[in-house]
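Preliminary data (for renewal application), beta-D-glucopyranose complex.
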Amino acid sequence: MAFPEGFLWGCSTAAYQVEGGNEGSNWAAWERRKGLEPCGPAAASWELWREDVRCLQDLHANAYRFSVEWSRVEPHPGEYDEAVLARYALQAKALRLAGIRPIVCLHHFSEPAWLYERHPKGWLTDEPIEPFLRFTERVAAALRGEVSDWITFNEPMVWLLFGYGLGFWPPGFRRALTLKSTFIENGLIDRVAAAHNGAYKLLKAEDPKARVSLAQNVVDLEPARAHVGDLHALQAWDAFMHTHLLDLLKSAGTLDYVAVNYYTRIYVRASRLFPLGALACYGELERALGPRLFRWLGGRRGGRALTDMGWEVVPEGLGRVLGRLHRAYGLPLLVSENGLADATGLKREDFLREHVTAMGAAMAQGADVFGYLHWSLVDNYEWGSFAPRFGLYSVDKDAAYKRRPANGAKLFTQIAKSNASCLAANK
Ligand code: BGC
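Predicted structure:
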């Protein structure tokens, strides 16, 4: 299948996961506190960003989504590092000159440690909104003329669920039993929406032609059983994780397109034991509970091949998700992340081909998708560990962080070069 002219083929990364040296982040403090593998130099992209641009050129990519690290830009409250901002501007300019459209994310999970020293309750209060908007303003001004495509927050619902609901991520709040009241009635999601809406206005004021969205993680959902209760549970989970926030932004008129990160499909089962009456059968939950308890509680997995994250590979789910978002919002769509962790180095090519094919099929049925960004360009820090390998390029830490093409890079290049899905196996 041929894709529309100008279709974006690119990769996504996040500052904290690739740059290295972001010791002022709340993630660095969290790693120490929890004894996690430290992120440390990550993929050394702060120094080696030109190498990353070269990799993108080799891939024939025409888009690159990266994020700016708040704690690097603003190491102390109200003190902005102009050299850091200039460096991000240079990176964006270099990308543009190489024919690669920079798409910049402002908040990708990592936040300055000082934010929580000053405001220990974080986004449970309104306090972080102002500092976030001041940071946004600085970044928008520094990148003026170089960047027109923005993502305010990456996967805010995943970030909030893990950081404010389950306590798996910083700031480590556990509010699982009061998920609905904390997140909806007490305004946690509203606060993020307010921060997004404020950032949207600032970015548009700086550049009226700016295109602004946020990246929502959307999993394909199926009821665990042919059962009306499971269908209701599915709808409740879908509303909570996917549509509640997007609806708020759509009605505020602050979504120019919908950026969607797609990785997998999960089953949902009605269960009074779980928040919102929904047992959402994520691989993570199965791991946390153990497979026996998970199954005893009614958990279901689908038996598909698993990635190294324990996520089922369900390419047609991407097509379904794009179709649903198209029908619900009628906005242009960007696949802002899609990829797999694979240490065998054998599976990415098939994964890529099948997901691009599913995306093409959704487009043939009307979904207005304007780009596909693979997660990720290089192997990087997966929030607590370097073990999962997501990169189209591997990174050799023992050889000065040398990037080497991995499985999938060849096919990606063919797709991007021909602007068409290449169905034949790439042997
Ligand atoms: C996140 C990335 C993460 C990737 C793989 C996405 O949910 O945005 O930061 O590395 O998934 O887990």
